[in-house]
Fold each of these.
Amino acid sequence: MSQKDWIEKDYYKALGVQKDASQAEIKKAFRALAKKHHPDNNDNNPKSEAKFKEASEAYDVLSDEKTRKDYDETRAYGGGIRMPGGFGGGGTSGGGQGVPFDLSDLLGRTGGGAGGGGFGDVFGGIFNRGQAPSAKRARRGADIESSVTLSFNEALEGLTLPLRLTSDAVCSLCQGTGARNGTTPRVCPTCQGVGQVNRNQGGFSIPETCRECHGRGLVVDDPCPQCHGSGHAPSTRTVQARIPAGVRNGQKIRLRGKGIAGENGGDAGDLLVAVHVSAHPVFARDGDNLTVTVPVTFAEATLGADISVPVPSGGTVTVRLAEGTQNGRQLRVRGKGVRRKDGTVGDLLVTVDVAVPQKLTVKQKDALSAYAEASKDHDPRADLLSRAKEHGGQS
């Protein structure tokens, strides 16, 4: 960049800060603009690319105290001050030779040192800080999915079951090299084994996956006939999957490290097991509670009784019906529901269903007729009819 550039370009305005802005404010402004206008987030957008270059150029000048002072003096006096070399990608008025501007170097320089959590860390893997890694990067293995169908009781109690999985794994024939037996891969000549190359974007460069080796850092001239050079092939294995007690229908269980193996020392992926729970003919589930509908006789509901209620484990519990129990009333049996993660257990909710017999013997009919005669002075609908008549015709 020339002295004329410094005079004509307002770098403070380009970053949207005041002339007396602190270094922290300048850095914050550049971070926001760089993230907004980075080419990776704005494919084929010339305006964003221009904004990104403008912000990068402004930050390159204003982030250095000495250069910023020279810039301020140049604009204040309209030139006449020799501009320092080594900026941007253009020359200097003093004949100094400019050097290419690498945004990775800039981000590395402002990152705050090792372990500092500085600006360079904000963009993570987008920038490589201008340094080629000395070893291939560890990669986490991919997650895989499977599904199981459990009975209602199995879901309540939990179980461990074997799952037979077919997934991508290290090729057993070439042991993951991707090369035919007796041959070895060679270091990629394009990226020199790094797996990444720098792509120039005008005055800056950004890293991208090497197209020749697809990020592996190695090139296979004679591919393995089983994996065709990828180093991976379908593999069948059996894993023991622990399904916890109380699992719900449709829930996914994550089993750490049971997925595809990682590369270059990376962690294995996870296994996600989708659980389908079959319906039960007697019980249903309501959150952490179980529900059951129990039929009772008219006499039991009227006079009160101790009734047996089934539980999912196969046994029964005794529930006391009070005198005059109404149809549809719900009773609660503590601790007979679903086991929670904290070890506590939900309840069993029992709904009373007064069963009306469809056929009666002569003796039963005579008994009910006697009851009806004894109860004829009691009309359970009297209050209903009275209220309906009282409000009849009203809107």
Amino acid sequence: MQCNLNKTDRGIRLILGLALVGVGIYFRSWWGLLGVPLLVNAAMGVCGLYHVLGISTYKGKKP
């Protein structure tokens, strides 16, 4: 898959993912696992849902 997330989108997902995981650890809840997909999206720069919907916020060169 091609990168379809810009820096801002990746940053927001990183912050929200870390917050969700942190809250899950703090409260010892499985709800913290909801942050893991956000962290994976931020690390890879790819969102599967964006791909399906044909959305891209990435403005760089496409290979």
Amino acid sequence: MDFSSLGKGILILGLVLVVVGGLLWALGRAGVPLGRLPGDIRIERDGFSCLVPVATMILVSILLTVLLNIIIRLFNR
């Protein structure tokens, strides 16, 4: 693998991360309750809190899978 293709891959990965980060930021500002969806586990006690965002992780995983499949199909043309 030469540096040209390695650089291209890193650049594409960086752009994907920027897009995903921007989408998550925009969804948070729009009031989408990521981390507070039904199915997210929240345990709060005196001096202790634990959040396990199961539903949010599944939703983000599905969205990333669809996004990455679209990107891969566009680059394989």
Amino acid sequence: MKQLWANIAHTSGAKIYSMLIGVFTLSLTARLLGPEGRGQVAAITTWVGMFSTFAYLSLGQVALHRMAGDPAHKRFGNLLGTLLMMTLILTLLGWLVAWGLYWHNPQGPFRGLPATALLIGFVTLPFMIWEQYGSSLLMGLERIRTYNRYQVAGRTLSVAGVFVLVGWLGQGVVGALQASLLGQIVVALGGIGFLIKFAHCKGTFCRPDKAETRALLAGGVKLHLNAIGTFLFTSANVLILNNYHGAEQTGYFQMATQLLGVLMIIPSSASMVIYGKVTRLGPNGAWPDNKRLLIQITLGMMVLSAVAAILAPWGITLLAGENFRPAVEPFQWMLLGLIGMTFSTVMAPQWIGRGYFWQASGLTFFVGAINLAANFWLIPLYGMTGAIYAFIGTYLFSVLGNGAMVWHCQVMSKEAR
């Protein structure tokens, strides 16, 4: 457990740093670009993020499951080569769809977004897809610290790029997206040298393989509804709120959700570390540590939620300025959903490690669909408050599904012994 917590602390430190850099970059670009420029950057990055979410097909998580069944890593080179190939194919398909949407109707989905800025934004797509795959492979090899180092380096380069390209050279929205692209390249490609070297050490070459391709796509078909469902209850509310009530309420709501993301760093780090344990020991072998961490982290997050609620009026205005005081109350209410977020995050390695792709996808997509329907119903009536109601209800509901999974893992672990 000490080594687990050491890895969690290392990963949490990297994530905290990256998150703080992200919040700082948000504040900096808002001041340098103004509301319209910041809105264009947010819109383009959200579009690219959506394309990445739909395009990567959850193949990284499926790769973790494949690695769990190959503890000697004899197929690692073929797995790596197949994921590199899929990155290229899925990127080209994403670019084709984006170009088709823009060519068909320039004043449609991308209305008001400069063509050059859009182009730079979509250049980021392959690196966003590969980050999903590369980080999964590093997690499976229990080399998450390698990913952490490059994550810190990439985010640092990104904020430095904003200072130079936007603040000094005055390149505006284009400069902000160029800075983001530079950082993403470092984060995505930082560990690829180690992965290639590891494959060669195992006597395999990084060649695509038909069997691996079929296995990855078969698992991705089962699992990818999970990613789509996650998008529905993490990002759809922002788009709906912006559509019905404009940028101001959206800005307050986004600030609250970003701060929740900061609090979720420890559960996310624990999940990344547990993936490595599941790969090495199997889901039943890793379950005792997984269960202890779930209990410890859930109790810790409850305490942290109470502290955050008390400090929110001071902390948010110190971080973002007095203009963001309206974000305080939404943040305090949304803390009620933190237990559900923790359960979903810490239990994810068990869902994936056991190969419960359809079940995980079905639960997440169902919860995401409920959230989407609730947002379409509540946001037009109550604005940001409606989005908060939908958020809390969704994550409290998710506790039931993941609680059932806890019981199932406990039973399976006892039978395995």
